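Exercise 3.2. Students should predict the tertiary structure of the chain below and write it as C-alpha cells, then compare their answer with the key that follows.

Predict this chain's 3D structure.
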Amino acid sequence: MTRNLLYFLFASVLFAGTDDSFLLRNVTVHTVSGGDLQGAAVLVRDGKIAGVGSKLSAPKGVRIVEGRGLHVYPGMIDSASEIGLSEIGAVGVTVDTTEIGPFNPQLRAAAAVNPASEHIPVTRANGITSVIVLPDGGVLSGQAALMHLSGWTWESMQFRAPVAFHLNFPSLGTTSGVPPARPFKEVKVDYERRLDSLKDFFEQARRYQTARKAGDRTLATDLKFEAMLPVLEGKVPLLVEAEKAETIRAAIDFASREKVKIVLGKATEARKVAKEIKAAGIPVILGSTLELPPQEDDPYDEAFTLPADLFNAGIKFAFGTHSAAFSRDLPYSASMAAAFGLPQQEALRAVTLNAAEIWGVADQLGSIDTGKWADLMVTDGDPLEARTQVKYVFIKGKAIDVKDNKHYRLFERYMNRP
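Answer key:
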C-alpha cells in the first residue's frame, strides 16, 4: 500500500464523524513529558487523552484510526502572537492590537480576536494549536489570553484569560539613526519620566487595592485599577518586554520592589544577565531566532545561540513570534536553535511543554499525557524540520482539516494551471 493511499484512507476515517473520541493506533508517540513510544496508540475520549500505550484497544463505539508510519506530537504553542488581532499590517483598519493611552490594563485582547482571520488556518496547518494573544501599545497594553486556534467565536476559542498583562518596560531607546540623534540627556529625561509614571500608576493601584480591602464605601470603581488586582495579588504575571541588558535588570528590580510575578519577553540580551534572571527564577519568552544580529558588531549567530545559552544557564524559556503572518514559522525558531547547540528535545519542549508550564496550563496542555486535552499534530516526521508535512491536527479532540487554508488553495490553483 502506497503512503499516499494510506493517507487517503486515514483521512476518510478521520473525518467520517464529527465526534471527539477515537483510537489513533500504530503511531510513534512523542509524549515530550517522557520518552517516545514506538508502535503505540493514543485513546481520546470526549476531547481528552484517555490513554497512551502499546496495548490499548478501542472501547465499544469508538472509531479506530490507522496511523501506521506517522508520528504524533502535542500541538505547539506560540507564546507571543498577534493572531486574530492583525490581518494586513499595512492596512490600519485590519489591525486591532493597540489602544490610545499609556495604561490600559482593563483591555482584553481576547475580545478583539477575529475567528475568521485567514492567518488562523494557515498557522494551525503547521501544527500550532494555541497561541498567547498579546495587545500592544503604550506602557501597560492590556490582558493577554491563551486562545485555541479553533472556534466560531472568540469566546469558544478562549482557553484561559488573562494569562498575563503585557508591559512594555521603559527603556533608554536609541540615540542614533534617522531622524538625527537626540542628545543622551534628553533621552534619559524622557526615560525617567516614563519610568516614574509607571511607578506612580502602580502606587495608585496599590492605594485602590488597600481602600477596596478596607471596604471604603466612598471608593468609586475604577476599571483600570480593578483590572490590576490579580497582578498586585500575585495571581497573574506581567509579560515584560525588555530587550536590552540594562532594561532587563531594571525590570527585575521593579518586579522585586513591587512584589509581582513577571515573565520576560524578547530579552535579546538575556545572556548578559543570565545569572540575575536565573536567581530570580524568571522564565523568558524568546522572539524569533531567524534574525540578524541586533548590533552591527555582534557575532553572526547571536540570535541562533541564545536559546542554548539560556538552557545551559538553567533558565526556562519558550518561543513567541510576536506576529500574525509569521506565527506559522514558530517551529523553525526552535529548529534553528537546535542547529546551534540547543538539544533537540529541549527545542521541542520550548514550543510545547515549556510554554504550557510558563503559562500555568501544564496540567491541561503541552504533552501527550492522560487527562490532558487532545491537542495533537500527526506528521510524517520531525515537526521542526521544514520538509516535514503536518498531515492532521486535533484541537480538543476535534479533527481540523489542515488543507482548508488560503495557502493550500493557492498552491493547488497554481499547480493545476493550464
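Discussion points: The chain has a mean pLDDT of 92. The radius of gyration is 23 Å.
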